[in-house]
Amino acid sequence: MARKRTEGQAERQFATKLIHFNRAIDSTTGASSTPIYQASTFHQEALDDQQEFDYTRSGNPTRQALEDYIAVLEGGTRGFAFASGMAAISAAAMLLSSGDHIICTEDVYGGTYRLLSTIMTRMNVETTFVDMTDLDKVKAALKPNTKAVFMETPSNPTLKITDIGAITAWAKQHDLLTLLDNTFMTPYHQRPIEHGVDIVLHSATKFLGGHSDVTAGLAVVANDSLGLRMKQLQNGLGTILGVSDSWLLMRGMKTLKTRMDAHEKSALRLAEWLTEHPEVETVYYPGLPGHPGRAIHEKQSLGYGAVVSFDVGSGERAKKVLSKVEIPLVAVSLGAVESILSYPAMMSHAAMPREVRLERGITDGLIRYSVGLESIEDLIADLEHALSFDE
């Protein structure tokens, strides 16, 4: 017998929702794992009676289970799974039309910056990048053709905090679409739709997947009208997530809370240790008492996350650290069970011109540390050795 969703399920705690989401149990067989429907097309029983699935680009039971899953976690009306985080962001950007204008977080992820500054400009969509920690600067960027506000909080990689509620309240006064990249916080720590955001976006490759083994993007909309428009774009662009990757992502998401709790505990210890290290000039982490956006972050988020950025003063010193560490991967990406150390100037923000990076605090000495699930004592000892520049 198929198990039906009850009203009580909506009130369950986040940890329970992660495991017992709708479609978690297969309604046909009772399988405890969502089946992988490895099919490109579906037989039509009756041409006059439209069925839920007809062609996998338009919809697939495995991908649908994932899309329903993220919608429940984010508190939205509908979810969409894409081939990558940038595919999700690009689809959302396609909601805009020629002649429109976007206001965007200035120290946004490099891939988003590249999309908005080199691709959307060819579509005659312009972007103004502003410091979203200052609401007055956001307001000053408004133009007659402004149609959307794109937020990333905490920002990547300097972890600046945007007041989500203040931005969305102002945006609604001007009938602006609001989008937010929630990759760093995940719906466990931060649910932007509850603060008025229209579309939430994820590089699910990161913390949601959590194991460096799947590339995926997710989008969640706040209302049915946006859901219809996003569905048209997903189907029309065809940048869907494959069914095997959809299954793999769901498997990773089930342990999200446990992983994030452990990540954060270690990240806070690492950040506190770095603030005392003589070779480190600046540490960026919203859980530190001196972080300028901490009070706002705590108002809208339940945790501080697992990403710590720190500046060692120069590109030469940063490269020495990256060459000496032994435990973290030195790699593009973040949010995995293994720690990942990356160099924004040459990795995540390589598409951003150097002068633009420096204006936004993304210096040549900046290193981003995604804290994994290894022993924090081992991670600190490893980094202590890497920061010994006299050796």
Automatic annotation (TrEMBL):
- Top-level enzyme category: lyase
Q: Which domain of life is it from?
A: Bacteria
Q: Which cofactor does it need?
A: pyridoxal 5'-phosphate
GO BP annotations of the record are:
methionine biosynthetic process; transsulfuration
InterPro entries from the UniProt entry: Cys/Met-Metab_PyrdxlP-dep_enz (IPR000277), Cys_met_metab_PP (IPR054542), PyrdxlP-dep_Trfase (IPR015424), PyrdxlP-dep_Trfase_major (IPR015421), PyrdxlP-dep_Trfase_small (IPR015422)
For the modification N6-(pyridoxal phosphate)lysine, the affected residues are K206
Annotated GO molecular function terms are: cysteine-S-conjugate beta-lyase activity; pyridoxal phosphate binding; transaminase activity
What EC number(s) has UniProt assigned to this enzyme?
4.4.1.13
Keywords, ordered alphabetically: Amino-acid biosynthesis, Aminotransferase, Lyase, Methionine biosynthesis, Pyridoxal phosphate, Transferase
Q: Which GO terms describe its cellular component?
A: cytoplasm
Q: Which family does it belong to?
A: Belongs to the trans-sulfuration enzymes family.
Matching PANTHER family? CYSTATHIONINE BETA-LYASE (PTHR11808:SF50), TRANS-SULFURATION ENZYME FAMILY MEMBER (PTHR11808)
Name used for this protein in its record = cysteine-S-conjugate beta-lyase
